[in-house]
# Entry
Amino acid sequence: MKGLRNNPWLSLTLDAWSLGMEASTVIGLRTMKLAAGGPAAEAEAVLMVSEKIEASLDLQHRAMTGGLGLTPPEAVAHTLTHFRRKVRANRRRLIKG
# Structure
């Protein structure tokens, strides 16, 4: 059991699962907004696509400049943190509106 506590991949797996659950909430909120139609839905669709492009380019830049760490677990942890910030910001915004 001692080995599991020292295994960074177990913690990262749980973090990735948690992020997936948060992302599914955002997907549901966005789906409802898009289904409502109108200018707000159109703006949300444009925002959704542009955010994904921006987040991917930012992450790629970080990877190329060493900003994700020096080990595979560090890179995964930084990647999860990067996307978690985006997902949480969207969840807060969508719940307000």
